[in-house]
Every structure is written in structure tokens, then in C-alpha cells.
Design brief:
The protein has 17 helices and 13 strands. The two termini are about 40 Å apart. It is globular and about 65 Å long. Strands 5-2-1-8-6-7 form a six-stranded parallel beta sheet. The longest helix is centred in the first third of the chain and has 17 residues. The chain is an alpha/beta fold. Helix 6 links the parallel strand 6 and strand 7. It comes from Volvox africanus. InterPro entries: FucosylTrfase_pln. This is O-fucosyltransferase family protein.
Length: about 425
């Protein structure tokens, strides 16, 4: 059953298309921070901020490869990774950074930071994008953020703060609204008067995988699984990176050491049982697995011991799909690109089971919901006692979270569409 009620894909947004940019508009440039999926979250947050600021234009930069997997050497071209047709048809006001640079020297007027902590390596982060940061006296704090709130009066204050500037570097990751990177982001949240939460809900669903990426995913599915065969997809991501390294160890892993190193050590003893339960629920043996290449041997061994023959996609598979594609990608072959295609495979699965702590799982869950798939077909590994065998479905996370927030006095008041809010 298609899940359409949550999403309003074709909202008549209040801003003009990128091709009708005016001379006095403000450009919101997301400063890329962390890995590719975090960077995409930052782009979604920039689009959401632009949604709140009429007369502004969100800038979509190319992605940077993951430094942990690839060294972050090459660019990944956003033009061929995202579905530009959906972005254009939404009337969303955006422009690709590559196009903007044809008429702009790359010098930012101001840095807008959405955290209350010390500024990170601003000049270095901006320089990695081929841009130049302003002097430090033009590094300012945002009056809106996940910690400060996002009411109409705060948005108005931000508009006034940004009036003197044209090129605004937005430094933000998971600071715009509550847990934008996690699972469904704000797509299943009760925003309860938070404009940033609502704007992310309405605009982030417009960022989806491109037809070129989906073609590569479908080629793999057809060759390896079968185009009409139901399958389970999973993302197993020990957290943090040191936990990935710990899983690389030979032999049995010491549970005490694992609890010291890993934030989600509970997953180790549950993931096989969770996949077995999903196989039974969806009546399929096919299981596609995403995990870091260095721990595939351990993951595969554990799944096979549980009677599951996991499927993986590797660089050779991706290279074959690229060679057979109607429009080959210009983005260089890398583990980061492989992960993008893995996500597209997982987004097409009958059911998906992921790691709640990972932005990659969040990217897949949000892509599935944006495509209209029922959120209850997406699951996550959880320590909750009711999810030991059959894993928790994503909506359960938000029901429990809303219950916790409600117990603290949070109202159940619903927020009207942002397109109906006053402009001034």
C-alpha cells in the first residue's frame, strides 16, 4: 500500500525556480561537513532554510567522497546524483554551485552557524569546496536551531540579520531541526509549532536519487536478485568508526571491549535474528546487505551461520552496471559512489532494516518515504525488549519519542502548512 498521506510532494512552494533568479536574492550555501550522507542532510537543511526565507536561493554543491573510505579526493557530481526533474517541478528555488560559480567569485559574505559550541575549521571546510570564507567578524550565530527553537519571530529575526548579505555560508549538520539525519528525519514527526521541523518535512522529500543512479541499482537487482522477486535490504553499521575497526578483529569479539568501543553493541547479537524474522514475515530468502567492505567477511559468516546467504554489491558489480548504462556517470568510481547505489538498491527493497545511529540508514528511510512506500516497511536495530526477534518498525520510534515528549508537557497542537503562514 502506498503511503501518501504524510507527504505533499507537489506543494506550490512560495519561491521561484532557479532559472528566474533575481539580482538581489540571498544564496544559502551549505558548508559540507563529514561524509556524503551527512553532506546530503546539510543540503536538505539548506533547502529547508531557503523555504523559510522568501527571496533566498538554496545552492547545491557537488558532494565530497568519504574521507574514511576514499580519502575525500574526488567530487561526486550532484547534477547526476539527484533527480533534478523533481526539484525543478517543485518550483523550489535552487541553483547548482557549478552554475553559480560562472558568475560568482566564490567569496562568502557571512558564515551562519547553527550551533552554540565553538566554530569548527571554517576556512578549511570552505576551502575544500573551492570557496573562500569571510573574516571572522562575519561569522554569526543563528537565532534559529534545534536547541534555540524555530518560531515565527525567530525566523523574522534571522531574515533581518541576513539582509546585508548575499552569499551566506550555512554551517549546520543535524542542527536545523530535531534529528534530521536519523531514520525518517522529521517526516513522521509531530512538529508542534517548530517551523524548521515543518519546512524539512515539506522540502527534504524533493531530494531523491537520480534516474541514472536508480538505473544502476535496477541493473544490479535484475542481474542478481530478479526484478520481480521480493527482497530484504539491510544496513549494518557499527558505530562509531572505531567500532568498525573493532569488528575487523579475528575470532570472537569480547563483549566487554565491544561495550567500551561501540555505541550500538547490542546490534551484534540481534541482527541475524532480525533478518530471519523479516525473511519469514515477507516470505523471501533474498537478503541484500550494506556494510563496510572491511567487515563483510564477519557479517557474511554470521548470516550464513543463521541460514542466510547475503548478497553484496562490490566495485566490479558497479563497474559492470556503469558500462551497461545508457548515460554513464562522470563521477569517478569509488566506495562513496558504491554506497550511493547501495542506497538506491535498499530504497527499492520490499523491506529495509537499518542502523538508527547512521545517517546512511536515515538517507534510505527518507528516500523510501519520499517515494511513497509505507514507513512500516522500514525497520531498525533496537535495544528495546519487544524488538529482539522482529525488529522495530520506524513509526514505533516516533510514537515512543512523541510519548516521551508529551510526558514533558509538549502540546499535540498541529502546525498549518508553511505556505499559509504570513510572509512578513
Amino acid at each position: 500500500m502506498r503511503f501518501l498521506a504524510v507527504l505533499l510532494f507537489w506543494l506550490p512552494l512560495r519561491v521561484c525556480q532557479a532559472k528566474r533568479i533575481l539580482q538581489n536574492e540571498i544564496f544559502i550555501v551549505p558548508i559540507l561537513w563529514h561524509g556524503p550522507n551527512n553532506q546530503i542532510t546539510e543540503i536538505k537543511e539548506a533547502l529547508s532554510l531557503s523555504f523559510l526565507l522568501p527571496g533566498s536561493v538554496a545552492v547545491i554543491p557537488n558532494l565530497q567522497e568519504h574521507k574514511f573510505s576514499d580519502g575525500g579526493v574526488h567530487r561526486m557530481f550532484s547534477k547526476e546524483l539527484f533527480d533534478n526533474k523533481i526539484l525543478r517541478s517543485s518550483n523550489l528555488s535552487y541553483i547548482l554551485l557549478d552554475d553559480l560559480r560562472k558568475t560568482w567569485d566564490g567569496v562568502l559574505d557571512v558564515i551562519l552557524f547553527l550551533r552554540d559550541e565553538d566554530f569548527p575549521r571554517v576556512s578549511s571546510l570552505v576551502g575544500d569546496m573551492g570557496l573562500k570564507a569571510p573574516d571572522q567578524e562575519r561569522w554569526i550565530r543563528s537565532p534559529i536551531s534545534v536547541t534555540r527553537g524555530c518560531r515565527q519571530d525567530q525566523v523574522q529575526r534571522l531574515r533581518k540579520m541576513l539582509q546585508p548579505y548575499r552569499y551566506v555560508g550555512m554551517l549546520c549538520y543535524d542542527d536545523f531541526a530535531l534529528q534530521t539525519h536519523k531514520l525518517a528525519g522529521t517526516l513522521l514527526s509531530n512538529c508542534d509549532g517548530d517551523l524548521c521541523c515543518q519546512s524539512y518535512k515539506e522540502s527534504s522529500v524533493l531530494v531523491r536519487k537520480s534516474p541514472q543512479v536508480c538505473e544502476l541499482a535496477q541493473d544490479y537487482i535484475q542481474r542478481t536478485i530478479g526484478s520481480d522477486r521480493p527482497f530484504i535490504a539491510g544496513h549494518i553499521r557499527p558505530m562509531p568508526d572505531d567500532c568498525v575497526k573493532f569488528w575487523q578483529s579475528s575470532g570472537e569479539l569480547d563483549p566487554i571491549q565491544m561495550s567500551d568501543v561501540c555505541r550500538n553493541n547490542y546490534m551484534y547479537d540481534r541482527f541475524v535474528h532480525n533478518f530471519q524474522a523479516l525473511q519469514e514475515k515477507y516470505r523471501t530468502k533474498a537478503v541484500f546487505i550494506m556494510t563496510h567492505p572491511t567487515i563483510r567477511p564477519r557479517v557474511a559468516q554470521m548470516l550464513k551461520a543463521g541460514g542466510i546467504d547475503p548478497l553484496f554489491i562490490d566495485i566490479a558489480d558497479l563497474n559492470a552496471s556503469i558500462g551497461a548504462a545508457k548515460r554513464p556517470l562522470r563521477t569517478p568510481l569509488s566506495f562513496s559512489l558504491l554506497a550511493v547505489v547501495e542506497e538506491a538498491v535498499s530504497a527499492a527493497a520490499t523491506a529495509f532494516l537499518g542502523t538508527a545511529e547512521s545517517s546512511m540508514t536515515g538517507m534510505i528511510v527518507q528516500e523510501r518515504i519520499a517515494r511513497g512506500l509505507d514507513p512500516s516497511t522500514s525497520y531498525f536495530f533496537s535495544l528495546h525488549p519487544s524488538c529482539t526477534v522482529l525488529p522495530c518498525a520506524v513509526p514505533e520510534y516516533y510514537l515512543r519519542r512523541d510519548k516521551r515528549l508529551s510526558s514533558r508537557g509538549t502540546s499535540d497542537k498541529k502546525l498549518p502548512l508553511l505556505s499559509r503562514l504570513p510572509q512578513d
